[in-house]
Amino acid sequence: MISDANCDFNKAVELSEMKIFHDDLIELIKTDTVVEKQFGILNLENLQSEYEGALLCSNLTGQDGKVREAVAFKLCEFFKDENYANLLSNQRNFEIMLEGLMDINGNVCRNILNINCDDFDRFLAEALIPRINTILFNISKLEKDDKKYVISKLNFQLYWALEGIYKVIRYIKFSDIKSILGKTSETADYTIREKTAKIISFFKDENVEDIKQKLIENTNYYISRYLA
Q1: Domain identity same for 83 and 22
Q2: One domain for residues 213 and 122
Q3: What Å distances lie between residue 183 and 76, 158, 190, 202, CA to CA?
Q4: Which of 3, 67, 92, 161 has its CA 20 to 30 A from that of 61?
Q5: Average confidence (pLDDT) over 6-10
Q6: pLDDT tens digit string along 142-186?
Q7: What would the DSSP string read from start to end of 124-175?
Q8: Over pLDDT 90: what percentage of the chain?
Q9: How many domains is the chain partitioned into structurally?
Q10: Are residues 130 and 208 in the same domain?
Q11: Does the pLDDT of residue 226 top 70, yes or no?
């Protein structure tokens, strides 16, 4: 019996040996087959319309991890070109990209974080604050016997959301995130405290001192290095 992995490999080889044009790649992206979607996305060399940009973005969520990772990679690549960036820069696509920033796959998160687009950064500066407050609220409601994967997933989302805050920190006032940083500075997860310290290091306002002092007292190098 031929395994699914072998079938995928054979299909990938078959596709790579075919002469496939742009429209064919778009059709592959529309399919429900992981290997075909992934091949279509990774081999897409350009975007010819807002529709194609929306199609690409739509596969960033609700798909197999290989597909999501391929989409995030191509988005990061396409945003380097102003023409493609214009086709991708709209509210709906940015909302999907926000979800990608907090994907369970770290490679997806990193590529979304590396997108260079002022419009997307300004969107994140507004959208991340209420999202983080929601995550913190959900964490506060967890009980001790909640499954570890639920806790880990929320902490993972919070970690990347805070990375997003740092990415767009130039658009954010300290007063807008002081409450958030006060909470994240006290979390048990040191990686969250580390991201808090990284954000705090950007601000020189005396109002950061109370939070900064909490973090300075922490002996973890990865936290204290931002506050020396």
Answers
A1: yes
A2: yes
A3: 32, 12, 13, 18
A4: 3
A5: 55
A6: 877 666 778 788 999 999 999 999 999 999 999 999 999 999 999
A7: HHHHHHHHHHHHHHHHHT--TTS-HHHHHHHHHHHHHHHHHHHHTGGG--HH
A8: 70
A9: 2
A10: yes
A11: yes
- Collapsed DSSP state (helix, strand, coil) of residue 215: helix
Provide the pLDDT for residue 1. Answer: 42
The single-letter code of the amino acid at 219 is T
Nearest Cα residue to 223 out of 186, 197, 187: 197
Same structural domain for residues 102 and 6? yes
Tokens of 212: 């900064």
Q: Tell me the C-alpha distance between 186 and 41, whole Å.
A: 42
Contacts with 22 (C-beta within 8 Å, 6 or more apart), sequence order: 44, 45, 46, 48
Please state the length of the chain: 228
Q: How confident is the model at residue 209 (pLDDT cuts 50, 70, 90)?
A: confident
Of the residues 92, 116, 140, the one at which a domain ends: 116
Final residue of a structural domain among 83, 99, 116? 116
